[in-house]
Amino acid sequence: MDRTKGITVSSWPVLFLLPLLIVSIHGAAEARATAGAETGRPKQVPAGTWGGKGVLLDVREDGARIELVCAHGTIDGPIKLEKDESFHARGLYLQEHPGPQWMEEEAEGRPAIYAGGVQGKEMTLTLRLEDTQEEVGTFTLVLGRSSRLTKCR
């Protein structure tokens, strides 16, 4: 048996191929990680109609519109989900009442915070006025469910 500094001639191919094998395994692991990564677009609340008792939320990729018994509101921009499936979005809230809208802020709307979370096809939504932190309500909605709303008249 020929030996060169403790390494046999028959072990040379293994020593030559071992770094290639390590690089190949590392590259495959990197490819799997990249394939599972997001496409660069943040995850969003699924588009569609979300309905619940006294509330209807129409979600689009670029925002949403909410209808309540005596109010409505908007979210301008996508509703992005965090890793824990929660969300926090800003928008407007417009209180409705019978007759003409007399107060200017009622006609234009008030800044609002729409926050909650999604689990499968169910959403919990809390609507809060941004300026006073007054909670308008917390709602449970289901994707694909309609809602019967009796609007203020």
How is this structure best summarized?
The protein folds into two domains: 3-36; 48-143, no CATH class. The protein has two helices and ten strands.
Topology:
Elements: E1 3-4, E2 7-8, H1 12-36, E3 48-52, E4 55-60, E5 63-68, E6 71-76, E7 86-95, H2 104-108, E8 110-119, E9 122-129, E10 135-143
Antiparallel strand pairs: 1-2, 3-4, 3-10, 4-5, 5-6, 6-7, 7-8, 8-9, 9-10
Q: Strand count, sense and closure of the main sheet?
A: 8 strands, antiparallel, barrel
What percent of residues adopt helix (DSSP H or I)? 10-25%
Detail the poorly predicted runs.
Answer: 17-38
Strand segment count: 10
Write up what this structure looks like:
By secondary structure, this protein is an alpha+beta fold. It folds into two domains: 3-36; 48-143, no CATH class. Helices cover 20% and strands 42% of the residues. Strands 3-4-5-6-7-8-9-10 form an eight-stranded antiparallel barrel. A two-stranded antiparallel ribbon has the order 1-2. A hairpin with a 2-residue loop joins β3 and β4 (55-60). It is elongated, with a radius of gyration of 28 Å.
What distinguishing features does this structure have?
153 residues, alpha+beta, eight-stranded antiparallel β-barrel, two-stranded antiparallel sheet, 2 helices, 42% strand, elongated
